[in-house]
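Quick one: structure for this chain?
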Amino acid sequence: MRMATDTDMPMASHPQPPIVLRAIAVVGIVLSLFHLYAAGIQPLGLFYQRPIHLGFILVLCFLIYPVWGPAHPRGITGWIIDATLILCGVVVGAWVPINIDIIANQVFPRDIDVWMGVLTILVVLEGARRAVGLGMTIIGAAFVAYAFSGARGEMPFLADWMPGIMNHRGYSLERVASQMTLGAEGIFGLPLGVAATFIFVFVLFGAFLEVTGAGKFFIDLAYAATGRQRGGPAKAAVIASAGMGSISGSAIANVVTTGAFTIPLMKRLGYRPAQAGGIEAAASTGGQIMPPLMGAGAFLMSEFTRVPYGDIVLVSIFPAILYFGTVYLLVHIAAVKQGMSGIPAAELPSVRHVLAEGWHFLLPLVALTYFLIAGYSPMRVGFFAILSVVAAASAKALWVFFVTGPTVAGLVALCRRGLSLTLRAMELGARNAVAVSMACAVAGIIVGVVGLTGLGLKFSAMMLAFSGGNLVLALLLVLIASLILGMGLPVTAAYIVLIILVGPALTSEFGVPLLIAHLVVFWYSQDSNVTPPVALAGFAGAAIAGSKPMETSFQAWKYAKGLYLIPLFMVFNEEIILGGPLPLLIWSGTIAIVALVGFAAAIEGYLWRPMALWQRALIVPGVIAVFWPSFVIEAGGVALIVAMLALNWWGNRGQADLARPDSV
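Got it. Here's what it folds into:
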């Protein structure tokens, strides 16, 4: 069974025949071995690596996802369709590498190359429909149709349906097919290149961590550290999700893995079902912005901005801490308001015992951090990280083997288990890479059309017109666009589409630095996980909690408020990302913490004690002032927030003094 992805929804699944499962395993293992070879032994050129990767992914896609959907058997007709598409996937993957010399030296494409381009576009759109969802396919097809519109295009009548600013000359089938498949600006462009290199290797790294038991280790460690505190399971959910989010690569996968443990315990402790599901969804969404892996987005961001991956990880640490600190504080306030206590110590594992059993799982993360700081390429870092997982797990298994008494039969069994886990991790990694690779392939279509038609500049002009040159309104438009796109696209795909369309406007028209523009769009692209009416992580949390999906989604939206505020702070206090004088960095970090604490208290109406409505109302303009690009207004906002929080603390102290026996 594959891990959940950003588009997974609960449904009955018809079991695959054993021969199909075996074929999926074989193809997945071969694909993983291919990428390990390219990452650690012999790097390949882009017109070898990317088409071969796409060919394998298409074959896996049509094997894993039947034409009629997972709830129905294929039948004879379905097998005819899928077998044909599998064969097409093989041809698509092999065509460019086999004909690379002819393609590179020809002035005009051959007819056969054009028709192969058409075939590639069609199978990619169909693969995306199955693995990512119909929304991605519709968007990809719409961009192809846009390329054909115009006086010289294949579909000139479409120009009559578009505003004047969107019109262009139009392009022929030959020109579009060539753009999509015979260069590095279409399907085999940057998005698929990142998926075929960095993303796959780190998805494989996460699969190795998963099959060796790292997930349970992180969850147990979080429980051991926080379980005895008020609202312990909810706080454990926050910490465990921070550790697991980057590994799983999906907020929904994070919810269903950590939430299976945390949500029932939260309910038992006194959290309402919708509240428990919402907390887990908000925490799991934060895993996508938590270094060192940050899902697939950080690798794409590095390629788009030409900023080293290690630098992106470093500048993302403080914003991620702010996000999880906000969720943690909201969880704590909710626990105090409801008079909750922690879990008895007897029911919790000890930190010492958890570390004694699973300390070796920390070694791969240490190795990952070391190689990133040392300046190795992300592909090579992922390769060494995988080797470190294998080495750590093998060393622990051998240690147990020798302590318990070595035997020949035991050694054979140990080797078989190690080989079985390795093969399972390779298959799981390949399965988990299908959805993101298909999304990146369709994103290549979008990138190709934008480059061909100049749509990016036109979209920037439209954005400038709608916002009236106001940066806050422009960011609000980005937020709305990300929410709408998130209804039909996974997070990574939404980020790619948004940054292609709005990135140039944010940087050139509004003066937002390139890296900050990408971080803002990347953070906002996460909101479809927690924002009603389509909150996929919230729905997953509701399924586990047994609560209403919409009520759970509103709770997730409340606890994930940092997802909306922190990107604004990056824009108006860019020194926390780009660096600056130490006093300025300290000031910016301090006011960010004060603003988020005040915001959390205003939302919950509670910090040390219940907060009066007028105090909550005064905190709101204080928070707004902290985001204002003026030192005087910032200082005034901080003073107002601190004054309201101090009144709350003083009132609680006075109440405590009155409650003492000697005060009567």
